Automatic annotation (TrEMBL), chain A:
Superkingdom in the source lineage: Bacteria
InterPro entries according to UniProt: ABC_transp_permease (IPR001851), LivM-like (IPR043428)
Keywords on record: Cell membrane, Membrane, Transmembrane, Transmembrane helix
Subcellular location(s) of the protein: Cell membrane
Primary localisation category: membrane
Species whose genome carries this gene: Bradyrhizobium ivorense
Name of the protein: High-affinity branched-chain amino acid transport system permease protein LivH
UniProtKB/TrEMBL annotation, chain B:
Gene Ontology cellular-component annotations: plasma membrane
Organism: Bradyrhizobium ivorense
Annotated keywords: Amino-acid transport, Cell membrane, Membrane, Transmembrane, Transmembrane helix, Transport
Subcellular locations according to the entry: Cell membrane
Predominant location category: membrane
Transmembrane segment boundaries: 6-27, 34-54, 60-79, 91-110, 141-160, 190-211, 223-251, 258-277
Protein family membership: Belongs to the binding-protein-dependent transport system permease family. LivHM subfamily.
Gene Ontology molecular function: transmembrane transporter activity
InterPro entries: ABC_transp_permease, BCAA_transport_permease
GO biological process: amino acid transport
Protein name, as recorded: High-affinity branched-chain amino acid transport system permease protein LivH
UniProt topology in membrane: Multi-pass membrane protein
């Protein structure tokens, strides 16, 4: 089995410095968005998906586990947060906390089942589990079926920040994204992350070295699901609804696509991929189902022509790790 | 009781489709090491080819049973030659991603031209009506689907397990390099295997056209259930795929009668239970 990425060696100081510089540029660019006249809703949406794709990438890029059901975390956290805000009238911070906690619990339950099988079976199991949840949400009364939960009040974060103001909401979402991103970055470069990479490269050897690989995989899965859920909770404030679209298999496919386009196993790839795919959907919204066809074409061409993705190819060209 | 038997029959029909599709997935996985995500889309193409043959060419259902699998099989072989073959030696997941992309393209194109609603396909005259079996009324077409699928499944089993060609195939699954050394053209066999698996999916599509209507997304949700069937049964054994497919269809039928709310989810729940009790699947070897 060939490796997904080139980064099998531990971080060098130079690579670390490169990545921190890129991260700083990214943070500054994102911070000045409200002053540029760019539609903030678009960037906020893209940021939520970027965090989602980064969380997904933690699992595939560093653990070698392709989850085809990550929409279940997005949707579950979204529904729970929306319900907490609208029906229980909880403040935003508690809504986000409960939504994210729900995703973490879901990660524990589905992770325990799905990591029992490896490789391609893992992907099929996660897909089937997310379809199971889709049907449950379709029938559960609190999700309001096809209509979804709509008109969600945004409220005041910590009682002071008025989230119904686009600029305030933007910086809250940005802060959430950056915090999530740094947490993933820290995880990847921790001893835990190194063990994950070793499992990806050669699981039997990792086992023979004494690592309980199932525990590592489960922990990575739960972490990934929790962060994906956090992104889902944030997205509720942006979209102000929670619907079945977020739990559907096509959403899981889009998450995979974003990460693949940006570059599996690259640090910034999922962010770039999310912006590219969300922008594409915005501009091609009038073309109906052709968007699906174009997504399919991108999938096929990515797999056949540039498996490293945009950022991966760039990093390879510059011989840097990005 | 009438209603229970009717649901069991529906279950057997769904089971036929699960069996035909999971059989194809297993055969393809054995040779190509690829989980064919496009299987549902190709199943849908089979139904559409039958629809076109009837409505544009006036070609009957019986010919469609033969022509549709061949045409879709050729389409599949073109896919294999132009795209899938380049994935040899890469991680499994790329095969899944590539075929997922193909499924999106095929389903998207059909949705553009035919929307999402169903097109009717008439039951052929010879199979119209039904017989009263005493304990239930059996629509002839439905009985035909179950029996014909069973025959096709067993024929495929016979082809792979009991013939010379099947022996080559099984040998190439175990060790392609060695089989090539014996002078057998393994790449051609891989292409034909993909064609065979895809043809089985298209055949299931033709069979389902008069029952489920012809819809661009008819295979999209089905393939996910079939994945669960494959996880439950494991892909190690052909007979295992057939039995698991039919059995799960029947269980689904029972569920529709006794607890209809769970009929969509019962296969997935069973998958979870099997994973908890016997993680390798009922017939499968360790992955």
């Amino acid at each position: 089995m060939s490796a997904l990425t080139d980064d099998t060696l531990p971080m060098t100081p130079r690579a670390m410095r490169d990545e921190m510089i890129v991260f700083a540029i990214l943070a500054v660019l994102l911070a000045i968005v409200p002053f540029t006249g760019i539609y903030p809703f678009f960037v906020m949406q893209a940021l939520c998906f970027a965090l989602l794709a980064c969380a997904f990438n933690l699992l595939i890029g560093y653990g070698g586990l392709l989850s085809f059901g990550h929409a279940m975390f997005l949707g579950t956290a979204g529904y729970v947060t929306a319900h907490a805000l609208k029906v229980w009238a909880l403040p935003p911070e508690l809504g986000i906390l409960i939504g994210t906690a729900a995703a973490a619990l879901l990660g524990l339950a589905t992770g325990y089942v799905s990591i029992k099988r490896q490789g391609i079976y893992f992907s099929m199991i996660t897909l089937a589990l997310s379809q199971l949840l889709y049907f449950i949400y379709l029938q559960a009364p609190f999700t309001h079926g096809e209509d979804g939960i709509q008109g969600i009040p945004q409220g005041h974060l910590l009682g002071i920040l008025d989230l119904s103001k686009p600029t305030v909401l933007y910086y809250v979402v940005l802060a959430g994204f950056l915090a999530g991103f740094l947490l993933i970055y820290r995880t990847i470069n921790s001893p835990f992350g190194e063990v994950l990479k070793s499992i990806r490269e050669n699981e039997p050897r990792a086992i023979s070295l004494g690592y309980k690989t199932d525990q590592y995989k489960l922990l990575a899965y739960i972490l990934s699901g929790t962060l994906a859920g956090f992104a889902g909770s944030l997205k509720v404030f942006v979209a102000q609804n929670a619907s079945l679209t977020d739990v559907h298999w096509s959403m899981s496919g889009e998450i995979v696509l974003m990460t693949l386009v940006g570059g599996l196993g690259t640090i910034f790839g999922p962010v770039v991929g999310a912006f590219v795919i969300i922008a594409m959907q915005q501009y091609l919204a009038g073309f109906g189902q052709w968007v699906t066809v174009i997504q399919g074409v991108i999938f096929v061409s990515c797999v056949l022509l540039f498996r490293r993705g945009l950022v991966g190819e760039l990093a390879h060209l510059l011989r840097r790790s990005l | 009781m009438q209603a229970l038997y009717a649901q069991l029959l529906v279950g057997l029909i769904n089971g036929s489709f699960y069996a035909l599709l999971s059989l194809g997935l297993a055969v393809i996985f054995g040779m190509l090491n690829i989980i064919n995500f496009a299987h549902g889309a190709l199943y849908m193409m089979g139904a559409f080819v039958a629809y076109f043959l009837l409505n544009l060419g006036g070609i009957s259902y019986w010919w469609a049973l033969l022509i549709a699998p061949i045409l879709v099989g050729i389409f599949g072989m073109i896919l294999e030659r132009t795209m899938l073959q380049w994935l040899t030696g890469l991680d499994h997941l790329y095969g899944l991603l590539l075929t997922f992309g193909i499924a999106l393209i095929v389903q998207g194109v059909f949705q553009n031209y035919f929307g999402s609603s169903g097109l009717p396909y008439a039951i052929p005259d010879q199979l119209k009506g039904g017989v009263n079996l005493g304990f239930m009324f059996l629509p002839i077409y439905r009985g035909w689907v179950v029996i014909f699928s069973l025959v096709v499944c067993l024929a495929t089993w016979f082809l792979i397990e009991k013939t010379q060609l099947g022996a080559y195939l099984r040998a190439a699954t175990e060790n392609p390099t060695l089989v090539r050394a014996f002078g057998i053209n393994v790449p051609r066999m891989i292409t034909l295997t993909y064609g065979l698996g895809v043809g089985l999916a298209a055949l299931a599509g033709v069979l389902s056209a008069p029952i489920n209507q012809v819809r661009p997304l008819m295979g999209a949700d089905l393939i996910i259930v079939v994945f669960a069937v494959v996880v439950i049964g494991g892909m190690g054994s052909i007979m295992g795929s057939i039995i698991t497919g039919f059995a799960l269809g029947v269980i689904e039928g029972f569920t529709k009668y006794y607890y209809p709310e769970a009929s969509n989810t019962v296969v997935f729940v069973l998958m979870v239970l099997v994973l908890l009790v016997k993680p390798t699947g009922l017939t499968g070897r360790a992955a």
